[in-house]
Automatic annotation (TrEMBL):
Methyltransferase among keywords: yes
The protein, known as: Uncharacterized protein
Active site residues according to the UniProt entry: H262
Species annotation: Linum tenue
Regions crossing the membrane: none
Domain O-methyltransferase C-terminal positions: 128-343
Amino acid sequence: MSQDLVGGSISSDELFEAQARARNFAFSYIVSMALKCIVVLGVPDAIHRHQGPTSLSDLASSLPLPLPLHHSKVDALRRLMRPLVHAGFFTGEDHYYSLTTMGKLLLPGGSLSPFIDLHLDPKMMAQWGMLSSWFLYSSDPVPFEMVRDGMSFWEWLEKAPDQKKAFRGVMIEDSKLVARVLVSECREVFEESWVESLVDVGGGGGTMAVEIAKTFPKLKCTVFDLPRVVANLKEGDGEVVGGSMFEKVPPADIVLLKLILHDWDDEKCLEILKCCREAVSQDDKKKGKVIVIDMVMGHKAVLENHELCQVQYCFDLLMLVHFNGKERNEKEWQSLFMAAGFSDYKIIRSLGPKCLIEAYP
Ligand SMILES: C[S@@+](CC[C@H](N)C(=O)[O-])C[C@H]1O[C@@H](n2cnc3c(N)ncnc32)[C@H](O)[C@@H]1O
Ligand SMILES: O=c1cc(-c2ccc(O)cc2)oc2c(O)c(O)ccc12
């Protein structure tokens, strides 16, 4: 430890505590890897199927593995579980394990499994190892492209089927949750008398459009995404249009942009927003609006919540490293809307770390 600290005015207890905290931050990848391991081993599902607190030996014998877990590894399983119990994924009194709410997110079909599959995949972690080199030496736009000879995330996904599946899973899970809140708690957004049509721009797998159309059957919902993305949509996914949001967006009363703008820098966002404003301004006898669902950094709902703040900072870095995108604060959103020619905007409500914003042409 440096001379300034040892023998200075800081107590040794405070120093040891600071050292442990700092080491734990440096070690957080160990918790991430333990998390990934228990998902791969099927631990959350085995506890869930047991239907009650599960002993270590019951857990070890009920894991869905190709071969039974060797008895010499049962104690390693206990040790694997320990930091995850400590982190709050499981309760683990007397080595009887149960799932907490956070742990239930890890179940197959739970909203966290695709997120873990995507972000803790070694292929998806290479760019993080290059972050400092990118700052120091690289002329590539972002670390993601630096380690893939200039290939963008969207181009790369086409060559990486496992990661593409995980990415689609991440988006579907988020959309299911957001759509549930929208159709139950934000009905007024879709129930204005002039609202007859909606286009979900960058609507991916169509989850939002399908869920909104189920609740508001009179609303004509369209999914708009790149041609190669919409080519995968099936009948029953509603109206589908392929194209680029940088060129032309199909006209509608509402344009939805969910988790789109944070992927792009300000210049690209302006191009997208101008096309969207155009799309909701086609009928001069009618109103129109663009709904943005994205993060608002430092929004009041987030400010006093340590977890929401931290997850916003992490997503902001994720966007930087993968896309040269960013998470924006309210002032940055306002500047974008005004520069794209909108007359006004309103933050309607928060949705965890994200907000629902309406922008008016
Ligand atoms: C982060 S995903 C969001 C998907 C969806 N809105 C959601 O929240 O689940 C970004 C989407 O933008 C789409 N996208 C990328 N470039 C696009 C373009 N030029 N035109 C239309 N969509 C595009 C991607 O294919 C992807 O589906
Ligand atoms: O892996 C992700 C996750 C998100 C995401 C999910 C839920 C939120 O509340 C915010 C962000 O967004 C992503 C994204 O826009 C992207 O282009 C790639 C990956 C992810």
